[in-house]
């Protein structure tokens, strides 16, 4: 049993069923089924088998004498009793996670595991700085989760988030490391065939609906409604690669577009819009933890050293030769 599960079992002992304490295993099953909607999903969340979840649920319903979930062909829906149990389980979980964060904040040694979440594009930059961090803090073990979805730092899915965002969530604290500039890019081969076109007349590569709320996604929606879209992708590396392949123009963050030798920036300066910022984020309760503070301090310096790249001041050497090649809109 983990420390978290042990604490939860103690708190949950105050919840009783037919004179017996309802333990955290019972509550965690109800909470997992409520969140996932299926036994298989709950089993994956809990790290147990489908049959174990089925058995625990059946035993619990028999002991309390009430059905907690209605069974339907496409999943499980909580009954009023199930909703009450799930709400109680969520409160227990929140209390323990809060306690863990506060206790972690009393750690004085920069050692242990630090879980970092970041995007696919920033992960590449992070990796080239980790060897130096390892040399400075050999007792800190870094776990990196690459995802374009903001991890829930409140529930300890990660402890540090490295994110490009205009406005970070209010519940997190952090450091703004650099502005992130954007520009329009095209491959050398594509531009050699379409050098005389206005930007609006070009072929374009866009993001799909999964990234519609991002800075680039919103710019595409606002500015390219009438443009000819040749391809849609669901990740920024694919957006860059499609531009490299000559499928059309693409709006890219300069830290992704400028290092690509096969791409040319169409505009000599970065665009006034869209802009976002690079943030290092953590939870308020964790920022004084030694290993978190040490990691944030190191990463802030490491990513600050990349500021010219993020802010579009390290453009391709060929940029000056491209000025005036295309007509501005």
Automatic annotation (TrEMBL):
Keyword terms: DNA-binding, Transcription, Transcription regulation
- Extract the Gene3D superfamilies matched here: 3.40.190.290, Winged helix-like DNA-binding domain superfamily/Winged helix DNA-binding domain
Residue stretches making up the HTH lysR-type domain: 22-79
InterPro entries according to UniProt: LysR-type_TF_proteobact-type (IPR058163), LysR_HTH_N (IPR000847), LysR_subst-bd (IPR005119), WH-like_DNA-bd_sf (IPR036388), WH_DNA-bd_sf (IPR036390)
Q: Name one GO biological process term.
A: DNA-templated transcription
Q: Does the keyword NAD apply?
A: no
Mention any Pfam family matching this sequence.
HTH_1
**PROSITE patterns this protein is in?**
HTH_LYSR
Q: Name one GO molecular function term.
A: sequence-specific DNA binding
**PANTHER family in the record:** HTH-TYPE TRANSCRIPTIONAL REGULATOR (PTHR30537), TRANSCRIPTIONAL REGULATORY PROTEIN (PTHR30537:SF3)
The entry's family comment says: Belongs to the LysR transcriptional regulatory family.
Protein name listed in UniProt: LysR family transcriptional regulator
Species the sequence originates in: Phreatobacter stygius
Q: What is the lineage of its organism?
A: Bacteria, Pseudomonadati, Pseudomonadota, Alphaproteobacteria, Hyphomicrobiales
């Amino acid at each position: 049993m983990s420390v978290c599960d042990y604490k939860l079992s103690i708190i949950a002992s105050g919840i009783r069923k037919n004179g017996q304490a309802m333990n955290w295993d019972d509550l965690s099953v109800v909470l997992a089924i409520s969140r996932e909607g299926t036994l298989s999903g709950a089993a994956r969340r809990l790290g147990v088998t489908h049959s174990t979840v089925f058995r625990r649920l059946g035993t619990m319903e028999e002991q309390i004498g009430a059905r907690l979930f209605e069974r339907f062909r496409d999943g499980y829906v909580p009954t009023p009793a199930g909703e009450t149990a799930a709400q109680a389980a969520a409160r227990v979980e929140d209390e323990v996670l809060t306690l863990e964060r506060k206790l972690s904040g009393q750690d004085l040694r920069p050692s242990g595991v630090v879980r970092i979440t970041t995007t696919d594009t920033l992960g590449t930059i992070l990796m080239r700085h980790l060897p130096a961090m390892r040399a400075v803090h050999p007792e800190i073990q870094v776990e990196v989760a690459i995802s374009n979805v903001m991890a829930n730092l409140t529930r300890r899915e990660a402890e540090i988030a490295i994110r490009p965002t205009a406005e970070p969530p209010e519940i997190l604290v952090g450091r703004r490391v650099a502005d992130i500039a954007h520009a329009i890019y095209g491959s050398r081969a594509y531009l050699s065939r379409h050098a005389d076109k206005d930007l609006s007349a070009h072929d374009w590569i866009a993001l799909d609906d999964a990234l519609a709320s991002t800075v680039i996604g919103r710019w595409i929606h606002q500015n390219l409604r009438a443009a000819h879209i040749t391809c849609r992708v669901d990740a920024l590396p694919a957006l860059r690669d499609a531009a490299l392949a000559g499928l059309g123009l693409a709006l890219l963050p300069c830290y992704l577009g400028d290092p690509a030798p096969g791409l040319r920036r169409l505009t000599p300066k970065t665009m006034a819009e869209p802009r976002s910022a690079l943030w290092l984020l953590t939870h308020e309760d964790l920022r004084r933890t030694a290993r978190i503070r040490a990691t944030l301090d190191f990463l802030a310096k490491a990513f600050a050293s990349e500021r010219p790249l993020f802010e579009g001041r390290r453009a391709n050497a060929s940029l000056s030769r491209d000025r005036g090649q295309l007509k501005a809109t």
